Amino acid sequence: MVQGSGLKNHVWGFDSLPRHQFEMIYSSQLKTINKIQKQQFQDKFISNQLITDGLGKKIDPGIIEAVTFLNLLEIPTTQSCEGHLPPIIGDSYPWIEISTPEINKWDDIGQIEKILKPRNLKSQKAMLILLDEFYINRNPPAHVRLTFRFIGIYGDFRIQSLGGMAMEINPLKENRILHQNYRDEMAAFTEFLKTKILGK
Known about the structure:
Layout: H1 9-12, H2 19-49, H3 64-72, E1 77-81, E2 95-98, H4 109-134, E3 146-151, E4 156-161, H5 172-198
Antiparallel strand pairs: 1-2, 2-4, 3-4
Helix pairs in contact: 2-3, 3-5
């Protein structure tokens, strides 16, 4: 058995190979998988760079990597913001909205709820698993931690720092510090996703 892999040689069909040859082939397999993942990331990243909102604005450069990694994990995103301080219009903290794209035909609300809500709840569960793993060895102040902000009626939600919304009542001097703290936390989460998907 390859140390740490949990895989026996026969799983790959290499029963008759010496251990060192098997390990070389196993390592090559991992490199191939990693190469495919990197290409998938690049393709999705380029695709996301072309997306614009109703005002013609593209995904903020400070949040697009996190959005792309979540998309690769089949977690659908619909809006995002890297966080801006005045005079730039927008929230002062970074956030990513996770939501199954709405269905155009709204003649049967009950049927739409049956379709959208389970999908969004599935995304919630996936995000909880990711955040649990992210915070295993990380213990920032409560207001910095990434959490859910629920929106809509079908289980849509945003990922953002817990203290983000309270920035509305803070003086600008305090918000400059929080703005950077919350951006740093989202950046750390992005790095976590990068390592998880692409490897170190």
